[in-house]
Amino acid sequence: MSLSEQSSLVEDLVTEALTTGQPLTGVQKEIIERLNESFVTETLPGLQKRHDSDQELLNVHAAALAQCDVDLETNSQRVSTLNSDQSAIESAHTECLAQEGSLQSSEKLMHEEMTAYLKSIQPPSNMMPEQRAPTPAMDDFVAQNLEFFKSLSSSYGSLKEQISTVEAEVEAKTAGCAEVGLVFDDKFCLWKIEVENAKSNYLNCRTETGTLYRETLKTAHSNAEGRRADLAAVLKVQCYLKMLLEGTTQEKMKECNDAEHTSPALDISEPQLPELNQRVLDGLGAPGSRVQCTAAAGGPSGSVYGVYGTDAAGGHAGSLLGSN
After folding, report:
1. Which of 135, 171, 181, 228 lies 20 to 30 A from 76 at CA?
2. Hey, which residues does 310 pair with through a beta bridge?
3. Which superkingdom is the protein from (predicted)?
4. Any domain includes 289
């Protein structure tokens, strides 16, 4: 029997008692006792149970919203580690480029020295003696030129070897810097993508859980209003039942009708929600676009909620409240 049906039955008994002035029959007393027992053992505990269920679900959604901040803190630590990694590689790349530039300067200087040296040398003589015979003049000519070209060969060979060495060093350093640059690009893009994911996941998480919380809160307050009305009706009927057993009068009925009831136990307590954590969001950094990152890191599929966000079946915890 519904509460409205129970109320209607009791009101009929009250009307009959006032109209006839006759005492209650045994059957009527039994009905009253059973009604009162059902109120005490079923109706009132049921109201409290539904209230507790609404409050618990509201708390779950509030905890899911708070979990967004916990996840943000966790992700910010990962972002910080990735930032340190890319920063260290960037420093190594910058140092490598400086070393490459220094080697290139040395290479350029050596080429200039070689050019200046070759321009500055003068053979001892380019005129052979007129008498092409083993004469003292020919001996002197050959000796002078042999000494000159021997010295030229040594100096030229030494400079050429130095140039070859530094050219090889430049080539190796350029290749090494390019490799470090690729590593830096990867590290930078990984950091950038993690920053973007952490920010978007946090904001999406707060939006989704916040919306669910507000909708649940609205329904919970509506349900609470209905339960307070039900409680007032139950207490009024209980007052009628007591009156029927003790003696029905217009004055007692007026007292039952005019009685005001408070129900703090059925009030919805609104959990305190964390504000948007702008400090941690700002602390994630702003990588910018100095490296063109084309690949997006794929995060784990599923809800952005934390442990409070999904139930065992994989859906939102409790979804929205039902009525009452």
Report:
1. 181
2. 316
3. Eukaryota
4. no
Distance from C-alpha of 193 to C-alpha of 206, rounded to nearest angstrom: 20
| Number of structural domains in the chain | 1
Q: Report how far residue 285's alpha carbon sits from residue 78's, in angstroms, rounded to the nearest whole number.
A: 12
Q: Residue length, the chain? A: 324
Distance CA 234, CA 44 (A): 8
Whether pTM exceeds 0.85: no
Place of tokens 């260290």: 88
Residue 295 counted as domain residue: no
Span 191-241, pLDDT tens digits: 999 999 999 999 999 999 999 999 999 999 999 999 999 999 999 989 988
Q: What is the DSSP string of 130-174?
A: SS-SS-HHHHHHHHHHHHHHHHHHHHHHHHHHHHHHHHHHHHHHH
CB of 273 within 8 A of CB of 62?
A: yes
Residue 122: pLDDT band (50, 70, 90) is: confident
Over the stretch 85-97, which tens digit does the pLDDT of each residue have?
999 999 999 999 9
CA 26, distance to chain mean position in Å, is 69
Residue type, 39: F
- Domain assignment of residue 146, yes or no: yes
